[in-house]
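Can't paste images in this forum, so I'm doing it all in text. The chain is below; anyone willing to post the predicted structure tokens underneath?
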Amino acid sequence: MSQHYFETVHKGFPITVMLGWDRPLRYFFLTIRKPAELIDSAMKVEDEDFLYSNLHEEDPFGHGLDYYRAVLGHFHIDVPSSMFTEVQKDYAGNVGNRVVKHEADGSFVELGA
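Text version of the structure:
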């Protein structure tokens, strides 16, 4: 699977957003990792590790990138557009085993495969 990371702050706490393409199972995914102290009223499931995970959805595997844009908007979390652009490229090329860290300015660096 491809994994695109972005580290930011939500309500004063550090969070990590991971968006990607799962090549073997052929679906997009999104997780928002948070510290245990951050409980948010918008959370669908109370989880010590995640503010959001597509695995908590009723249909965890059937969502496109626009859906995940809306999820991030729901939490008022901005990520660089490069994340969506690069994940779309991963989907188009059915790329797996790609790990990329994105920066707020839209730059990114591949960390490995």
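Strands lie at 2-10, 13-22, 27-33, 50-53, 98-102, 108-112. Residues 2-111 form one domain.
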